[in-house]
């Protein structure tokens, strides 16, 4: 187990190094540069010397290989540098927004799990009844309503019913939990709906699969109540693939947050990423992409480890 | 034909919606009551009426006509990018699985790296590099989807590679290209078609998301995501009926494609049939 973990952790290094290299090259290929955008953004004219001096200050006049080396070495030492747009440390820029996005992700995942597991279980147990068809409609609409459209619908509805519109300022949970939750619950619903649909579908098919297995017949044959059979034997074993879906969905959520945060006017990591790319803020974009790639890679590993923990038959070498 | 409809009623419904969309896209100039680009400043942001069944937008353009022409954009981008993605993915997937060894190992690591990028980041990067516009959006969709397509086909190609008939073909002295063409490709066709239909729904959402973010199709091209962006941003309070039409169009299209994709998967992959 320990060697497996070590091997997986070591394998992460080349993957993340690859991500670091690709994002570095990708950004340098994009037209436009941060200095020009920042100093002459509104179409103003800036003297060449000023632009040159600013580029030199940011290290953009160095040869490509030197910029790359700086980036990789900095990454290795945990030094992500300063944002090229605001001049503040990248870590600070990210930390300000991280709480919001993390909370949103957590809330969305909790909502998804809370809805998906009971719903998927019920649908599998009451297969081919109206409940099952209801779930089918639910999952298909979850997959068919794009997050921005669902978000717009919810905003329109809230506006009509309660004259409520997304506030301009974000209230943190520790300041005012009620205000915070009433602000985040709607985007969380939007984000969570899709994962709820996917997980409920997975739960249903996994449970149907498990219910046909021999050990379920054994459990029934030895006189266990149906409740115990379902709870202790079936659901537990059906949870495995559901965990994969939930885990991987929450890992790619940063990408999904870009759109939702835009709709609900939330100043989180998704919005930050969009801003950073449009401003050609190399350092900040690189750091954000690394963050989301690491989240994805780590989540993958956690899902695999979860498997081994839940299913002792699985042994990793 | 009837047997298929009876066996997969939901899939048939999806196919009908898809056919209707195709018809609307092809016959758009005759179906649409107005020119989708024609502005008319005497009727700016009007609610639905007899003259404009879905109202007019901020430039006085007829929303219904723009929705009908929007089907063209959605289907064009959707069909082209899912076809290219699935086909390129299939070729790369089969090739790396067949060659195996170091080539496959390196290809898999590269795909690992690309998969750890959030889809939307790659799409944004492509748009930033190529600019906005319909063809650029197609590229922006293909690039991030390609690694996933490759994975799907590689998995089934790997399974086929282990089959005795491949070994038999080899031992009778058949060349690699011929084995791929005659034995491997026909056997991954099922997963190719399943993937193609599954991608259609996803691609339409992705195109609409990019257009919604202002990174996709640009004005004055009629596109649903773009219309939703304009209407939801500025007119949510003054004209709440406006965002409904493009939003419904997107969800209906995606819903239909999902139904069709599910039916195709059930029909072609007997293991999933219940």
Structural class estimated from helices and strands of chain A = mainly alpha
Low-confidence runs of chain B: none
Estimated helix fraction of chain A:
over 70%
DSSP helix count of chain A?
13
Number of helices of chain B: 11
Structural class computed from helices and strand pairing of chain B? mainly alpha
Radius of gyration of chain A: 24 Å
The proportion of residues forming helix of chain B, as a percent range, comes to over 70%
What's the layout of helices and strands?
The complex is a heterodimer of chains A (317) and B (274).
Chain A: H1 2-29, H2 34-39, H3 48-58, H4 64-76, H5 90-125, H6 130-144, H7 147-162, H8 177-211, H9 214-221, H10 226-251, H11 253-263, H12 269-278, H13 282-310
Helix pairs in contact in A: 1-13, 5-6, 5-8, 5-10, 5-13, 6-8, 7-8, 7-11, 8-10, 9-10, 10-13, 11-12, 12-13
Chain B: H1 2-7, H2 9-26, H3 28-31, H4 63-99, H5 101-116, H6 119-130, H7 134-161, H8 164-171, H9 176-212, H10 224-234, H11 244-268
Helix pairs in contact in B: 2-4, 2-11, 4-5, 4-7, 4-9, 5-7, 6-7, 7-9, 8-9, 9-10, 9-11, 10-11
